[in-house]
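Supplementary Note 2. Why include the ligand at all?

Several targets in our set were suspected to adopt different conformations when bound, so apo predictions alone were not considered sufficient. For every target with a known small-molecule partner we therefore ran a joint prediction. The input for pyridoxal-5'-phosphate is given below.
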Amino acid sequence: MEYNFDEIIDRKGTDAVKIEGLLSNWGRTDLLPMWVADMDFRTPEFIIDAIRERCEHEILGYTVKPQRYFDAIHSWLDKRYNWNVTEEMIQFTPGVVAGLAFAIQCLTKPGDRVMMQTPVYHPFFIFTEKNEREVVYNPLILKDGKYRMNIPQFKELIKTCKLFILCNPHNPGGRIWTKEELSEIAQICHENHVPVISDEIHAGLALPGHKHHPFATVSEEARMNSITFMAASKAFNIPGLSSAYAIIENKTLKERFTEQLEKTESGSGHIFAFHTVATAYEKGEEWLNQVTEYIQGNIDLLDSFLQSHTPKIKAIRPQASYLVFLDCRSLGMTQQQLIDFFVEDAKLALNDGAMFGKEGTGFMRMNVGCPRSILQKALNNLKLAYNKHFPDK
Ligand SMILES: Cc1ncc(COP(=O)(O)O)c(C=O)c1O
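The joint prediction is reproduced in token form.
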């Protein structure tokens, strides 16, 4: 079956953050929304059918986690990553961010230092600070259009920390970290008795030619010293369902984590989480192959368009997912001028790169999980704005 990602679906009137947030964030509604991280593609029909089917039984009562949920996660992770995850290792969480925050609460105390690598998905430092832990930044290094870790500095800084938050694949840098990179940080964290919590929400969207490596699979040190957070949400475009899961092999870590969830009764999950995750993993492989091909096509279009028409803006090509960090430093604008350029001139709503940490200054993040004709429209807008400022390119 050929899925149609070219279809334009009007999301107005559905309370979509991407649409409704235009007014609250930009004070206007005439911008092309290419920001918050969900896709403008139809959620796969087989998932919608699973929800419909469950609704046909007209009692939506309290629900246990069906065996099918665990079996589907097990088979998916085994097939894709050769990772043998048993039912005992899986814990439902009401979202990846919630899971990360619970992990911070049970693995550290107020005042403890927590390390992360910026620019990074901004809730990492927001919830760390809100939980009164100190954020320690080990900024990534951008070299030849690719982000790398600063390992010498990592080794020094980690000595003072109680927890490390990894983003794998990285948002907004787009990197899928290699086994070697992950093994190295696993060893360093193990030696310093610092557990790792790994946000792998974008793993399912590894782009053609790239393979994701779950952190816990790279070494014994990683396996026994980590909590991995995964979800079907990004890959299958169901992030509105608040459903994710943690995988924890170390029994002590698992106990501490589940106890934390029990304190707020947050680990029980809900009907639609179980049915959609199971269905996505049972039926979704071909859809995922096609959607990642399509996203790759969008990234290729974006990259070649920028090179031809707006050469001072460079795409950091992601290895996973549909979020592209745009290096706009050669435009020579202040951050406010850059934001104004995208909003006032190009009529585009992108994420301000500086929200991901000060290393994101001079960057903007663009979501290309949309029909190609929408992306083309956005690029045409960008070209017009660019020509106004840089008539000689
Ligand atoms: C790296 C990363 N982690 C977590 C999330 C959000 O996860 P959830 O909605 O499951 O809390 C996002 C959403 O953009 C993300 O990019």
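Residues 37, 95-98, 121, 167, 171, 199, 201, 231, 233, 239, 244 surround pyridoxal-5'-phosphate (CB under 6 Å). The radius of gyration is 21 Å. Comparable summaries for the other entries are listed in the accompanying table.
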